[in-house]
Prior knowledge:
The protein is mainly alpha-helical. The protein has one domain. It is built from eleven helices and two strands, in the order H-H-H-H-E-E-H-H-H-H-H-H-H. Helix 2 packs across helix 9 (225-240) and helix 6 crosses helix 8 (193-215).
Amino acid sequence: MDLFDLPLPILFGQLMLGLLNGSFYAMLSLGLAVIFGLLNIVNFAHGAQYMLGAFLTWMLLTYLGIGFWGALIIVPIVAGLTGMVIERVLIAPLADADHLYGLLLTFGIALVIQGGFQVAYGAAGIPYRIPEALAGGQRFGAIFLPNYRLFVLVVSLTVCIGLWLAIEKTNLGAYLRAATENPELVSVFGINVPLLVSVTYGLGAALAGFAGVLAAPIYSVNPTMGVELLIIVFAVVVVGGMGSIAGAVVTALVLGLIEALTKIVYPEAASIVIFVIMIIVLMVRPTGIFGRTA
């Protein structure tokens, strides 16, 4: 199908869908990029932490009567604290070992979390209603924009830009970068390096949990919801450049749009187009588009 012959509402709807998917890719890839860029850990548990965020959102409403707005605050905090515990108890002891062990460990953690929820709640999806304040949408001529999807897009971009500024432009971000490059020197100045490392991992987990909250009203809440998305997010991080925070966000949005437009032009290739781009980038520039060359 030719893009130029496509009715404007359908084309605009696909672009919005691409931006929405790209915003989820951005938040998850941002968390991965932060953890890898500052801790040099390939975190395979990231998809499980995203799924955990969605399940916590549903559990808060089902068991405690706490709705979406409360979950937006509570879930990232719980996910972040859980991530810090995982880092201190399980990951920190492997800090001096080969990075392959950390990868295998986080992969095992992901399987345990996913399997636990699958045993408890089954594999079927659980619905979660869109909050009433964000129900409905806005109509611009023949184009209809759902309020909740616009909200997700705006919030996701705001969080991504805010975190990038915090890491790149503040003293805390400078401490985090310095602690990963020369932890011995930073500790001499009285900075608690192990705490900084835990906070960094917890921040990545909190981002995954926050994305899970936003995803709950759009996608059904189920134990495997993070698996397929994590594969895509890893591809996004590789294309953008492992550890590049700005690259993760920009690449996620661009690839989300490319994926959406591919569904129009050649739907059969939509599920693989991101991975084709990843292969091409790795062949031409192995460090990624925004990655630093040696």
